[in-house]
Specification:
Helix content is 31%, strand content 18%. It is α/β, with parallel strands linked by helices and 597 residues long. Helix 15 (491-504) links the parallel strand 16 and strand 17 (508-510).
Amino acid sequence: MPEVAFRVVPVTEVAADAVVVNLFEGVTVPGGATGAVDQALHGAIQEAIAAGALRGRLGEVLVLPTLGRLPARWVVVAGLGPREEFGRVAARTASATALRAAKKHGCRSVATIAHGAGIGGLDPQLAALATVEGALLGLYRYQPVGPVGRPGEGGEAAGGGRGAAGLGGAPAHGGSREGAAGSWAGSAARQAGPGAPAGAGLETAHETSHALGLLGGAVDPTGRRGGRPLGRRARAGDEGDGAGVERIWLVDRSGAQQQALERGLQEGRILAEAVITARQLGNRPANDLTPARLAEAAARLEELPGVQVTVLDEEELRRRGFGAILAVGQGSAQPPRLIAIDYVGPGRDGSEPPDAAFVGKGVTFDTGGISLKPREGMEDMKFDMMGAAAVIAALEAVARLALPARLLGVVAAVENMPGGRAFKPGDVITTYDGTTVEVNNTDAEGRLILADALAYARERGARRLIDLATLTGAMVIALGHHVAGLFANDDAWAARVLRAAGAAGEPLWRLPLVASYRERLRSEYADLRNTGGRPAGSITAALFLQTFAGDTPWAHLDIAGVAWSDRVEGDHGKGATGYGVRTLVELARNLAAGGRA
């Protein structure tokens, strides 16, 4: 991960491999920092504009050599798009595009202005946040970190199959098992306690996600012993998160806005690193990121103040009656897990009910089960846990920001596989809250495990619920790959979620819960069946989940179209996008600011 720091220095005087400035669409005579650079380059930027080589469109970038006229070797001009449409997303996109270009030109140190902090009209703190966020996310590229399990260490690499209790050996984060039933939690959060001082999270900003050990790495295909990472070997200095760019400086010509810019820098780095945590989890191969390993990644959050993690293994799930999670997971050699992440922010009491529960679907690989998916594109079903990744990563950011919120994260983690033990169409299962469900499609497994997770969150007393899930292909048809779908049973809660998504720059659109469609979920043999057929598939899936939310204000984000991408676009590359992390953080910020009631 590149170092990021603030410096008070004119962009024309900073000694870096590249300096990044910007241009709004339609501007022919640049001003501000861009104008100063253009003057130093004897009008080279204006000449490029006049020649049509630079128009200022969002996502456009022009790289010019300085020919010794500046201390920097290169100038990168990033397009900001139309001024009237400019905001956090545009600043983030421009920064990501610029840093990719600098990396392609072999730059190791890059200085950038805060996009929009001047004539762009953005609050300086938000401009710095978006610029740093975009820079780090634009540089991200997945690379296995290294083997995570060796004989005698925790995790399934030490032989943790169905016969192993808990996580198979001592948890890697240094916690302890609590009883033979397989429920365990470490001690780091208990030592930190709910009274961690305000700002403690920001003190951990220098501890990146890599230092927390949340990212993990690939192991040998058998999963029985430690080995070299799958795929190509890591090169020295190539960590997959911006290799080549070692230092990023956010610069401003005066110190007048330094405090706001530095706050934005710190927060932007924390948010970017949390999104990278989600991307890394999603991009890991499914034979590495099993349900148990996803639980291990979540457990390492206990190294942050105010966090306590409890993991229920297969034996404990059975003892407590999580029938839906067990049914979906029973066809796999990798046993399921339920992960509960408690966060108690500064000044909050851990005994009070959570302001909200963040619930994530964690299907670490989805074949469809007996209702088998087509083979084309099945490899992408490793991304079927991106809702869970968003929950884990968001709580990482919330803890590092030390937000004074009381939150609960719940992740249901399973593999959905065919086999002699797999659940079948026609089976009737009993969920955690006692509702019976007839299974008419084993490939509609996400809503089943979420049923148990939502019921558990309600039992824990959560005042509000929000779940994130790559739930339906119908959502991809409806909204494509840029917008997620929102369903909610409470208008006020839906409005808060939409505001949070807007502030985070993650597009979200509300769809209706059509009550008459509930009839399609009726079963002759149980309280419900798990699908209502192809028409309005996203709506009937949401109606199924609504049953388990009860009267608690609830929102469901169907992120099937936005959780991963097959192209480089905006601040993300190919693979997992980390959608939802920033929306959940903004929601937590709103709750912490007094919106608890």
